[in-house]
Structure formats: structure tokens, C-alpha cells
């Protein structure tokens, strides 16, 4: 007897289907109970968790223990896969070959960005991503020196998203070296333990090229020719 | 059924996919995980007319795929198939089906060709995976939705869960497109903002906002987006329900791969409801950018209308105002334009990447028909200017290498910026900013920074220097009234010296804290001013406070929510500036 646990997709026409997509024949006298062998009010329907006991002789399920929560596994999928019933013989799937096989394990991703020299020293730099609705303040970065900001985040491998750097608003989002808006940067988390992303921001969207130091006090303007913010005087 | 042709390996296809509708007894959306589930009489109708019914539905919106399971019926290509589960992987244009006649089988469809299944073809192991959402909070519930893969979900008559209350709404439009133009914001700032995306589509979004700020308290605002991949047009009215309204219009268009234009227009009007305004002012800005070989050109232009309405008749004391003196009339409508050429960063030495420089030159003018500047009794209506400047930078010079190779090097960063700007009223300004910083990571958790910046600004008027900056002037604090006699020596030349030390502690990706101490020694000396605006940490002083300690603590509450707390201490500057009146608490997502 082999016991395998999973979630039911369906239970019909004498077959129990797990979310692996496999259908297994259920013996006509199969017992349906709870994990302790007691009677259960649950029915073998979609989304219910089940532990199936297989008769290794004919591959049929002889006992189906039902639960609302996942049950511990006693057998590996490979051990019961041979009992799955299918009209057509399995053929190889070229879609599944040459795939990296991203396994979803947590990966520490370190983003480091070099900012333009005009970046105000007191400003914060953020990562805006499509998965956070392009909030311009989605992930705040830490300043590591006058020209670099860094943040480390955990992501499951295989995670994909687009991102841009901002200074907290879309008006101050990054611009390319040619002063033009840049396309969002694509990013995919690989299977490494640590992944490092190094980027350069050449300009900010709210830069005034005639102001030598972005955001640091008043600069002379045509309407305020004096470059100083002077207090009340008489 | 004819044999299916060979099919190549699938790769994610960004080709557009049509919207599909989903109806069921209960549809739930879990916003924290972007998972949509449905149960009971599930019916999915795809854009090509394919219909799938079943007992349960689950869609990982970010992975862009769905599953229908339980007593499934697939109606496609004029046929009807009984089955157990159906899955559609939109990004790969693959559909997977477990049919059930006398015995089950496994069919794979490619490109929606339901007449030619690949029988027995191996499927991805998680094809029919049903996510466990038993511990997640439902944000929106409905009985019918329309899903545009990779873009949006439209909920028909949903109930939205705001934590404290679940409220019915006529419609809710959830936009999760990868197009960042939907995030452009034309609304003015508010202390609290609750958006409700009422209606939308692939290129539009209509959002009502419930907002709060100190001046208007609770009020409504409205914002409309029209976007494509290369343009956006965002308009807003805020507040809708208070007399002092702001009408905003922001537009952007990527005219060509090397040119773009950005425009904004803002009108501020005092009006009851939408009646004729009592007073109104406006501002517009245009910015055109053209990428050039190894440089770019930017033209910016501004136009101000200090009063948009007709001149009122003279009132008490010969003053001109609309209604009462709080709505004064100003005839001025100044304008200005600047054209700046900026080079890319170039290496100073061709073989050394550490030292780079960029240069800029520009011309501009400003005009105000009622007079822009007066000197010696002569008024000027137009002032032109031209400028030249350059920036030198040496980022990340490894000053001391970490012998152990653990990235604990000591790095030096250097920047130097110099600019001169000449004006047609005879003066010129010079600015020089030099900065150096040392950074060092002790280990993965502790790092430190020491930075020194010196900034000089000079305003040169030649023989008119004592006229513009008279030494007899007395400067005083607007809060304490204290006189600052050292300002008598101020004649248009300012020096700021700033020393900053920072310690950053990051024990985990879920918790970060930093402490920064800044010391400034400046001329002219700083004068204490008023309390800052909301969400601004620094006081409105004249110059920088001599000492400032800034503490920042950030911790992650959930995978998508972080709380950021920031406060600053000013060491009793002026006798009353201790902690910043506005500590900052932000929820980041």
C-alpha cells in the first residue's frame, strides 16, 4: 500500500483526479473517511485535500482520506505516477525542454544604483515596479555613499517584473543619458543564491539643467535674479 | 480527429490577448497575491468564443494563467467535451485539458486550435495547481468580471472590502498593466488619498479620489487617464467639493525615438460648485527634449497668468480685487524660455573610467510687460541670459581594497560642478559645488558614510554691488525677531560647508534603520524660520540648521507593505527647533 496526498481536481466516473492532472481509478469498494480513519462529512470534490491509499497490485485507490487542509505526504509523486490512467500514451513536450526550471526558491536580490551628481543629498531614491501598481515610492533605497543607493529584497526565483528608479514621484523619475524617458527595466529572478543588479541613472525628470545643484535652495531665475533666499529685512 | 502538426517549444508571447468574461456564484479577488478565484457555476467565455464551465476557477493574475476544474465542459470549435480541468497559459498560448469519457486523457492545444489537440503530451507539473488562499483577505467580490490579461479586471457590481467595512459599488476597475503611464499623477498633494478606479479600459482610467488635507478637510477629487505606450494625458480636478479648485492637465508624447514633449497646465480657481469663478490664476510649462549625438537639447518654456479674469473696478483705497481683498487682481503674466545643450558624461582620460565630465551651455529669456526688474529707477521688461557649466565626477574609486575580497572596500566619490550665468541686466552669478564622500561596509549589515560638501554662490554686480546688497540692512528672524548682525557683511557671496556622517544598519531585508548627523558651518549664518510644510522635515529657515540628526526606521509588514518612519532633531536651533514638527510615516508598497 502506498499513500499519496494532494488536492482534488475532481472525483467522477470512478476516478479521482489530483491537481497534478492525473486521474486514478477508484476501487468500487473504496473507503472514504478522514485522515484518522473516522467518518467524515466532507465530500470528494474540487479543492478538497485527500490522501489516497493505492493498492500496488492494480494501482486503484482503496481508501481516500479527506481534509480541508493539506495532508503530509508518505509517497513521492514518482511512485504513484505509474498508476495514472490516460487513453493516450505520454509523449515528450518540447515546451518543457530547454527551460531553465526556475524553482521559486527565495533569492536575495541586491539593487545598486549610481545617481547623477546633481541628486540632492537629502533626497530618497525609490524603486517603482509594475507589480506594485507603479507606485513611485514602492521600495525605498538606502544611501550608501554620495552617488549610490542600495536595497536588498527577497524574491522567489522565476519572479518577473519591470522597474524604474524615482525620487518619490513620477515627475522626478529617471531619464536616460539623452534626457529622454527610459523604458522600464525588465528583471527576472534566477536560481542563484544572491543576484546583484547594478544600474546607472543619468538624469532625473525634474532636473533643471541651468540649476547647478538640484533642489538645494534657491537658484537665480529670471523673476528672482538674486540667487539667495534672504530673511525679512529693513 | 486529424493528427496535430508538430509544435515548437513555447516561449512567452507578449502578443495581445483578448479579454475574457467570468461569471460564477462567487468571485473573489485577493489583492495581496493578485489571485482571482471563483466557485459555483463557473463560466468562462474567451475572446475567440470558446466557453468553459466548471465548479471552480483560479487565476494567478501575475503569471497570466487560469484553471477551471470540477465537472468541466469545454465548448470550442463547434464541439463540446466533458472533462475534469482546463487551463489556459496566455503567455505561452497553450491550453491544457483533461477530458473524461470512459477514461481520462490529457490534451494540449496550441494557439487556441481546439480542433487539433496534442494527445498525451506531457504537461507542466503545476498546470492545474489551485492556490491556497484560505489565509488571505478578499479585497473585491463579485458575480461577474471581465479580465483583460496583463492589463485589467473589471468587476461588475462588486463589494469592496476596506478592512473596517465591506461596501457595494456599481463598478470597480483594477488596472495592473505594465504601462507606467497609468501611474502618472496630476493631483496636488494630500495628507490622505483613497482612490476608487471606477471605470477604465486598455487606454483609459477614470478614478474618483476621497482625500483629506489640513486646509480642505475631507473632499472629493477626480482624475482621468488616457494613455498609450508612448503618450499620456492626465487631467484632474481637486477638490471637487470645495470652492478653491485646481484644474490640472499633464501631457507627454514620445514624438519619435529621439524626441519627446511634455506639457502641463494648471488653473487655480475660486468658484462655488462649477459656477463662474470669482478669481482664477494659471501656469503652464512646456518641455521639449531632443536626443543628439552624445548630447541632448532641452527647451523649457513657462507662462504664468496671475489673474485670468477681466480687471475688476477699483475698490476701497484704489485696490483691485474680486469680491473681497483675499482675491486680489494682478495684471502680470510673465513668461520665460530656456534652451540648454547638455553633453553625455565623457571620460577625462580615455583609458580611465573613473573620472568623467559633462558640459552644458544655454540661453534664455524672461519677459514681463509690467516690468521685471528695476535698477537706478530704470525698469526692464525683458531679461536675457546665457550660461556655461560643467560637472566632474569620480564615482566609486576603491581607496582601500578589502584584502579578504568580501566587498568591504573603502570607496571615495568625488563631484565638482561649476557654472556661470550672465544676465542682460548687468550682473552674473557663479556657483561652485564640490563634494567628497567616503563609504565603507563593515559587513553585510553595517555600513557607514562620511561626506563633505562645500558650495559657493556669488552674485557679481560690479559697481552696483552695494546697491543690490546694502550693508546697512538689518536681517531678523520672522519668528523670534532676533537681529543677525553678521548679515551686514553679506554682499552677495555665500559659502556653505556641510559635513555628514551616516550609519546604516540592515539586519534583514525586512528591517532597515539609519542614523545621519549633519553639521553645517555657513556664511551668512542661518536664521531660524517658520514651521515646515506638511511632510517636510526641515524648518523653513534661511540657510541650513547648524546641526541635524535624522533617524529613519523601515520595516516590512507584509510582502507588499512596508512602514517607513522618519524624524529629525535640530538641537534647539533658535531656541525652539528641536524635533521636526512633521515626523514622517509612510506606507510603501
Describe this structure in words.
The complex is a heterodimer of chains A (234) and B (589). Chain A is built from one helix and 15 strands, in the order βββββαββββββββββ. In chain A, strand 2 (15-18) and strand 3 form a beta hairpin. Mean pLDDT of chain A is 86; it is low at 214-220. The termini of chain A are far apart. With 234 residues, chain A is mostly beta strands. Chain B is an all-beta fold and 589 residues long. Chain B has a domain at 20-148: lipopolysaccharide transport protein A fold. Helices cover 1% and strands 59% of the residues of chain B. In chain B, a hairpin with a 4-residue loop joins strand 11 (159-161) and strand 12 (166-168). Residues 1-9 of chain B have low confidence and may be disordered. The chains are: A mainly beta (234), B mainly beta (589). At the A-B interface, strand 1, strand 8, strand 9 and strand 10 of A face strand 3, strand 4, strand 6, strand 8 and strand 20 of B.
Q: What's the short version?
A:
The complex is a heterodimer of chains A (234) and B (589). Chain A is built from one helix and 15 strands, in the order E-E-E-E-E-H-E-E-E-E-E-E-E-E-E-E.
What is the overall silhouette of chain A?
Answer: elongated
- The stretches of 5 or more residues of chain B where confidence is low (pLDDT under 50) are 1-9
How is the main sheet of chain B built? 21 strands, antiparallel
> Could you estimate the helical fraction of the residues of chain B in percent?
under 10%
Mean pLDDT of chain B: 89
Number of helices of chain A: 1
Rounded to an integer in angstroms, the radius of gyration calculated over CA atoms of chain B is 32 Å
CATH superfamily of the largest domain in chain A: Immunoglobulins
SSE topology:
The complex is a heterodimer of chains A (234) and B (589).
Chain A: E1 2-12, E2 15-18, E3 23-33, E4 49-54, E5 61-67, H1 77-80, E6 106-114, E7 126-129, E8 139-140, E9 142-145, E10 148-156, E11 160-166, E12 174-175, E13 185-188, E14 194-200, E15 203-204
Parallel strand pairs in A: 3-5, 6-14
Antiparallel strand pairs in A: 1-2, 1-4, 2-3, 4-5, 6-10, 7-8, 7-11, 9-10, 11-13, 12-15
Chain B: E1 20-30, E2 35-45, E3 51-60, E4 65-76, E5 79-89, E6 94-99, E7 107-110, E8 118-119, E9 140-148, E10 152-156, E11 159-161, E12 166-168, E13 171-175, E14 192-200, E15 204-213, E16 217-227, E17 231-238, E18 244-256, E19 259-270, E20 279-292, E21 295-305, E22 335-343, E23 346-349, E24 352-367, E25 373-375, E26 378-380, E27 382-400, E28 410-423, E29 427-441, E30 446-460, H1 465-468, E31 493-508, E32 511-523, E33 527-530, E34 540-542, E35 547-558, E36 561-573, E37 577-579, E38 584-588
Amino acid at each position: 500500500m502506498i499513500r499519496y496526498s494532494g488536492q482534488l481536481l475532481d472525483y467522477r466516473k470512478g476516478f479521482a483526479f489530483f491537481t497534478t492532472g492525473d486521474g486514478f481509478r477508484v476501487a468500487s469498494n473504496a473507503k472514504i473517511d478522514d485522515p484518522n480513519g473516522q467518518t467524515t462529512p466532507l465530500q470528494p470534490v474540487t479543492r478538497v485535500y485527500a490522501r489516497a491509499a493505492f493498492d500496488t497490485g492494480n494501482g486503484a485507490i482503496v481508501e481516500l482520506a479527506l481534509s480541508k487542509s493539506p495532508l503530509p505526504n508518505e509517497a513521492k509523486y514518482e511512485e504513484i505516477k505509474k498508476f495514472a490512467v490516460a487513453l493516450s500514451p505520454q509523449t515528450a513536450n518540447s515546451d518543457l525542454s530547454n527551460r531553465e526550471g526556475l524553482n521559486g526558491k527565495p533569492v536575495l536580490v541586491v539593487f545598486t544604483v549610481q545617481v547623477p551628481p546633481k541628486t540632492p543629498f537629502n533626497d530618497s531614491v525609490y524603486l517603482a515596479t509594475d507589480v506594485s501598481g507603479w507606485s513611485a515610492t514602492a521600495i525605498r533605497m538606502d544611501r550608501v555613499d554620495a552617488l549610490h543607493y542600495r536595497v536588498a529584497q527577497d524574491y522567489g526565483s522565476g519572479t518577473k517584473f519591470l522597474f524604474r528608479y524615482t525620487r518619490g514621484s513620477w515627475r522626478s523619475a529617471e531619464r536616460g543619458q539623452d534626457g529622454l524617458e527610459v523604458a522600464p527595466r525588465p528583471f527576472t529572478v534566477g536560481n542563484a543564491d544572491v543576484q546583484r543588479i547594478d544600474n546607472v541613472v543619468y538624469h532625473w525628470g525634474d532636473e533643471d539643467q541651468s540649476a547647478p545643484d538640484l533642489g538645494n535652495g534657491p537658484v537665480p531665475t529670471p523673476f528672482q535674479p538674486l540667487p539667495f533666499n534672504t530673511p525679512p529685512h529693513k | 480527429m486529424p493528427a496535430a502538426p508538430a509544435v515548437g517549444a513555447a516561449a512567452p508571447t507578449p502578443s495581445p490577448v483578448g479579454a475574457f468574461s467570468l461569471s460564477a456564484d462567487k468571485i473573489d479577488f485577493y489583492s495581496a497575491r493578485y489571485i482571482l478565484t471563483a466557485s459555483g457555476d463557473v463560466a468562462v467565455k474567451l475572446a475567440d468564443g470558446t466557453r468553459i464551465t466548471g465548479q471552480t476557477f483560479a487565476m494567478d493574475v501575475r503569471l497570466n494563467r487560469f484553471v477551471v476544474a470540477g465537472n468541466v465542459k469545454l465548448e470550442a470549435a463547434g464541439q463540446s467535451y466533458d472533462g475534469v480541468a482546463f487551463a489556459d497559459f496566455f503567455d505561452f498560448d497553450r491550453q491544457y485539458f483533461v477530458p473524461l469519457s470512459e477514461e481520462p486523457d490529457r490534451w494540449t492545444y496550441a494557439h487556441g486550435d481546439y480542433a487539433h489537440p496534442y494527445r498525451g503530451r506531457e504537461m507542466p507539473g503545476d498546470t492545474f495547481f489551485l492556490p491556497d488562499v484560505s489565509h488571505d483577505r478578499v479585497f473585491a467580490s463579485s458575480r461577474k468580471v471581465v479580465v483583460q490579461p496583463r492589463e485589467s479586471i473589471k468587476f461588475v457590481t462588486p463589494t469592496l472590502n476596506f478592512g473596517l467595512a465591506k461596501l457595494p459599488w456599481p463598478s470597480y476597475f483594477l488596472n495592473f498593466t505594465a504601462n507606467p503611464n497609468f501611474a502618472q499623477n496630476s493631483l496636488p498633494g494630500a495628507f490622505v488619498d483613497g482612490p476608487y478606479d471606477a471605470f477604465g479600459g486598455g487606454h483609459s482610467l477614470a478614478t474618483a479620489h476621497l482625500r483629506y488635507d489640513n486646509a480642505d478637510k475631507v473632499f472629493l477629487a477626480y482624475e482621468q487617464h488616457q494613455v498609450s505606450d508612448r503618450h499620456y494625458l492626465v487631467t484632474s480636478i481637486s477638490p471637487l467639493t470645495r470652492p478653491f479648485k485646481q484644474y490640472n492637465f499633464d501631457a507627454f508624447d514620445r514624438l519619435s525615438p529621439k524626441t519627446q514633449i511634455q506639457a502641463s497646465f494648471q488653473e487655480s480657481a475660486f468658484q462655488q460648485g462649477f459656477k463662474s469663478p470669482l478669481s482664477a490664476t494659471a501656469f503652464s510649462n512646456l518641455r521639449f527634449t531632443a536626443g543628439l549625438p552624445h548630447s541632448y537639447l532641452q527647451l523649457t518654456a513657462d507662462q504664468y497668468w496671475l489673474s485670468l479674469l477681466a480687471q475688476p473696478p477699483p475698490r476701497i483705497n484704489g485696490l483691485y480685487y474680486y469680491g473681497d481683498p483675499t482675491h486680489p487682481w494682478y495684471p502680470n503674466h510673465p513668461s520665460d524660455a530656456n534652451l540648454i545643450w547638455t553633453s553625455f558624461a565623457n571620460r577625462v582620460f580615455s583609458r580611465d573610467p573613473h573620472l568623467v565630465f559633462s558640459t552644458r551651455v544655454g540661453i534664455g529669456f524672461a519677459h514681463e510687460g509690467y516690468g521685471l526688474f528695476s535698477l537706478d529707477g530704470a525698469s526692464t521688461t525683458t531679461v536675457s541670459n546665457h550660461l556655461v557649466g560643467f560637472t566632474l565626477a569620480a564615482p566609486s574609486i576603491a581607496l582601500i581594497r578589502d584584502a579578504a575580497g568580501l566587498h568591504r572596500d573603502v570607496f571615495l566619490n568625488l563631484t565638482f560642478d561649476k557654472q556661470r550665468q550672465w544676465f542682460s541686466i548687468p550682473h552674473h552669478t557663479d556657483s561652485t559645488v564640490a563634494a567628497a564622500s567616503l563609504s565603507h561596509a563593515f559587513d553585510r549589515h553595517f555600513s557607514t558614510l562620511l561626506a563633505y560638501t562645500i558650495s559657493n554662490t556669488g552674485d557679481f554686480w560690479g559697481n552696483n554691488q552695494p546697491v543690490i546688497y546694502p550693508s546697512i540692512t538689518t536681517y531678523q528672524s520672522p519668528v523670534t525677531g532676533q537681529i543677525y548682525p553678521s548679515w551686514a557683511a553679506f554682499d552677495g557671496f555665500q559659502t556653505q560647508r556641510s559635513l555628514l556622517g551616516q550609519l546604516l544598519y540592515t539586519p534583514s531585508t525586512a528591517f532597515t534603520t539609519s542614523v545621519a548627523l549633519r553639521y553645517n558651518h555657513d556664511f551668512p549664518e542661518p536664521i531660524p524660520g517658520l514651521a515646515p510644510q506638511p511632510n517636510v522635515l526641515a524648518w523653513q529657515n534661511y540657510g541650513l540648521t547648524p546641526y541635524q540628526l535624522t533617524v529613519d526606521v523601515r520595516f516590512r509588514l507584509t510582502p507588499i507593505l512596508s512602514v517607513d518612519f522618519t524624524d529629525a532633531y535640530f538641537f534647539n536651533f533658535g531656541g525652539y527647533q528641536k524635533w521636526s514638527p512633521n515626523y514622517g510615516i509612510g506606507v510603501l508598497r
